[in-house]
């Protein structure tokens, strides 16, 4: 197959000449040949199907069941919606790359994918913080829970998460467009991330480095600190309970959320550390990035489905009804 012409627009600016490629080339997983990539495409398609069906089922169950219209479940519906969109932005393109070997992704499409990946990740971080606040109020101030987290308040929190994710990450495509890409056009991942596109530039990236560090600290960094602080207060309140059974029951309501927090933040922190260390992109970078983006949309529905009695019972009911109609 003939390779596309990678050199795109060349623009003269007061600061010099900007060179933008028509395409970036996605590598997938470095070191793996086309055959291994091809066979990896099938489990990836299965993972996407699992993530889509799981998150969609949670959203529909919460929407249809009025008794689930409580803050904890409404935040869970927001989390599942974000995971559904995030997996749809990344996994189909990855599957196409693995199964067909087509590496090209248009320059502007790559920037758009990069924006949505980072913005949706920030939204997910905000929703995880909101869920931690919900558990904090429910355990530490149970009598005030209904008055603090009302329906309008939950809606405002969701809108704030959406707005913050959009506002903080909206500049990223534009500060990447001010760079010139006159050397390699190969992105050493299966999708586009700010750090990797930035490394392809042959011009000064100080603004990108500083702004990227600023938003990762002020968004995910602040969120993770508040989540940790919430759980310190929750743990103190749980340990103060006189009954061990009551303490275990109270903390058990947090297990699913703790799993979601760990699945989201551990790969994120690892990915941030390996990127900040600099050097060429290694297999570790790629694996951490894949875990960070692919794991939460798959794991979250499984964990919440298994640990949340109301959702689990609704899933069983749906399958029993389908079996009855099929019989």
From TrEMBL:
Any one Pfam family match given in the protein's UniProt record, by short name: 7tm_4
Subcellular location: Cell membrane; Membrane
Organism in which the protein naturally occurs: Orycteropus afer afer
PANTHER family according to UniProt: OLFACTORY RECEPTOR 51D1, OLFACTORY RECEPTOR 56B1-RELATED
Membrane topology term: Multi-pass membrane protein
Record's GO cellular component terms: plasma membrane
Keyword tRNA processing: no
Gene: LOC103197195
SMART domains, sorted: 7TM_GPCR_Srsx (SM01381)
Descriptive protein name: Olfactory receptor
Subcellular location, principal: membrane
Domain G-protein coupled receptors family 1 profile, chain residue ranges per copy: 54-304
GO molecular function, one term: olfactory receptor activity
One GO biological process term: cellular response to lipid
UniProt similarity note: Belongs to the G-protein coupled receptor 1 family.
Keyword terms: Cell membrane, G-protein coupled receptor, Membrane, Olfaction, Receptor, Sensory transduction, Transducer, Transmembrane, Transmembrane helix
Transmembrane segments: 12-32, 38-61, 73-91, 111-133, 154-176, 209-234, 255-277, 283-304
């Amino acid at each position: 197959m003939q390779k596309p012409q990678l050199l795109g627009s060349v623009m003269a600016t007061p600061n010099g000449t900007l060179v933008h490629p028509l395409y970036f080339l996605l590598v997938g997983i470095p070191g793996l040949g086309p055959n291994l990539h091809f066979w990896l495409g099938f489990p990836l398609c299965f993972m996407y199907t699992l993530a889509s069906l799981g998150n969609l089922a949670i959203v529909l169950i919460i929407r249809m069941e009025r008794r689930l219209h409580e803050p904890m479940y409404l935040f869970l519906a927001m989390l599942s919606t974000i995971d559904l969109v995030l997996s749809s932005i990344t996994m189909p393109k990855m599957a196409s790359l693995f199964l067909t070997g087509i590496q090209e992704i248009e320059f502007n499409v790559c920037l758009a994918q990069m924006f949505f990946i980072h913005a949706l990740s920030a939204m997910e971080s905000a929703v995880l913080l909101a869920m931690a606040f919900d558990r904090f109020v429910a355990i530490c101030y149970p009598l005030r829970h209904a008055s603090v987290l009302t329906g309008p308040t939950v809606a405002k929190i969701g809108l704030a998460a959406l707005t913050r994710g959009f506002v903080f990450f909206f500049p990223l495509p534009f500060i990447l467009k001010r760079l010139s890409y006159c050397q390699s056009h190969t992105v050493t991942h299966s999708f586009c991330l700010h750090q990797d596109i930035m490394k392809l530039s042959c011009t000064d990236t100080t603004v990108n480095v500083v702004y990227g560090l600023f938003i990762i600290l002020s968004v995910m960094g602040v969120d993770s600190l508040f989540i940790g602080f919430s759980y310190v207060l929750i743990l103190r309140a749980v340990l103060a309970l006189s009954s061990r059974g009551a303490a275990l029951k109270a903390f058990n309501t947090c297990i699913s959320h703790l799993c979601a927090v760990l699945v989201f933040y551990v790969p994120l922190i690892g990915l941030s550390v390996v990127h900040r260390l600099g050097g060429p992109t290694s297999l570790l970078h790629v694996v951490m990035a894949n875990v960070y983006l692919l794991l939460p949309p798959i794991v979250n529905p499984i964990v919440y489905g298994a640990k949340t009695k109301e959702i689990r019972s609704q899933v069983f009911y749906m399958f029993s009804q389908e079996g009855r109609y099929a019989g």
